[in-house]
Amino acid sequence: MATFAIPRISRRALYALSGATALVSGTYVYSHYGKRPQGNGPNGGKMMAAAAIANTPFHAEKVSHVEGDYQKIYNAIAEAIRDNDEYDDYIGWGPVLVRYAWHSSGTYAQASSGCPHATGGSFGGTIRWPKELGDGANNGLQNAEWFMKKIHDKFDWISWGDLVTLGGVTAIQEMGGPKIGWRAGRKELSADNAMTSRLPDASKDADYVRHLFARMGFEDREVVSLIGAHALGSCHVYAPLLPGQKKPIPGSGYTNRWTASPNYFTNEFFKLLVDDKSWHWKEWDGPKQWENKDGLMMLPTDMALVQDPKYKKIVEMYAKDQDLFFKDFAKDFQKLLELGIEYPKETKTFYFKTLDEQNI
Ligand code: HEM
């Protein structure tokens, strides 16, 4: 596909220009991700074309439900996490729900000269489509979908994109993390919008990580704060078995936890990267990963955060100051969950109460 440079031009003029281009170029928009009918976008037809060069092509709807309705869903997710704490050797469901929210959002690609309209992200809830969930990078997230389907059965009015992202916010807060602002209004997109091959490969180095997150519009400090979520959860050769499941499904192939408190949100991941002197390559016939004297783990992309001097400064900052990490993470995680989405002006940001705060 031909590349073009965008001259300095007002946003309004740019929209008009792209609308006109769409009119002469027929019913399809082309990109290096393939041919897609224009009407497939959230707004279809002309609006989709008009937003084609913007980084926020997905227009959230004005929702009729109020904060209390979403707090009910928050509570249902939080209670299901609390009441099923035996999952994954008593780590519980929190971490996999955080990963599910991140993987639904991390498919986002900004507009670029190669692809003049942004694509992907959490908006359309496309992670539920078999094509996207079946992407190798999503191995194990079938369990998160199983969990969330039961919530959706009770609250079928919520869009899948809203539900998946609300699950991530709930899990972070219930595991002792910061309050995350959250906005409603994502809409279902068809299976044609499913994205694959866009999530990071853990075997790579700092340059790769920097480039991959730049595609989503993140800078170094945001990248480091987001990967701090690896304080939570564990890697799996096989995903934990669900009730009644006989045959395990594959996980990422990596193994073990990053920290000693995998269901409590802390800056421990950064402390281990800075302070632990016992990191060495794990001797096993699985993929290359780091191990310390206590059997905790780091992925190659995690260790890249202290191998790269710019990333390392940020890691050291967060290792010293958990409050700063929490403050940054809250902002960056909300940004991640809203990539590509434009909200109506009047949309409220909700901050949900934890079960503890409600004495539930
Ligand atoms: C370079 C970027 C990243 C890479 C290569 C990466 C890779 C991985 C891998 C390989 C796993 C293990 C999955 C399994 O075997 O179950 C994992 C788990 C996890 N990741 Fe990441 N990740 C990255 C960034 C992030 C970000 C930005 C977040 C959230 C903001 C995140 C949150 C998590 C969580 C919470 C888990 C634990 C899931 C569980 O316990 O089931 N990761 N990640």
UniProtKB/TrEMBL annotation:
Protein name: Peroxidase
Localization annotation: Mitochondrion intermembrane space; Mitochondrion matrix
Subunit note: Forms a one-to-one complex with cytochrome c.
Major location (coarse): mitochondrion
Domain Plant heme peroxidase family profile per the UniProt entry, residue ranges: 158-360
Catalyzed reactions per annotation: 2 Fe(II)-[cytochrome c] + H2O2 + 2 H(+) = 2 Fe(III)-[cytochrome c] + 2 H2O
Pfam families associated with the record: peroxidase (PF00141)
UniProt GO cellular component terms: mitochondrial intermembrane space; mitochondrial matrix
Domain of life of the organism encoding this protein: Eukaryota
GO molecular function: cytochrome-c peroxidase activity; heme binding; metal ion binding
Entry EC number(s): 1.11.1.-
EC class name: oxidoreductase
UniProt record similarity statement: Belongs to the peroxidase family. Cytochrome c peroxidase subfamily.
Function: Destroys radicals which are normally produced within the cells and which are toxic to biological systems.
Biological source species: Cyberlindnera jadinii (strain ATCC 18201 / CBS 1600 / BCRC 20928 / JCM 3617 / NBRC 0987 / NRRL Y-1542) (Torula yeast)
Keywords from the named record: Heme, Iron, Metal-binding, Mitochondrion, Oxidoreductase, Peroxidase, Transit peptide
Tagged with keyword Cytoplasm: no
PROSITE patterns: PEROXIDASE_1, PEROXIDASE_4
Example GO biological process: response to reactive oxygen species
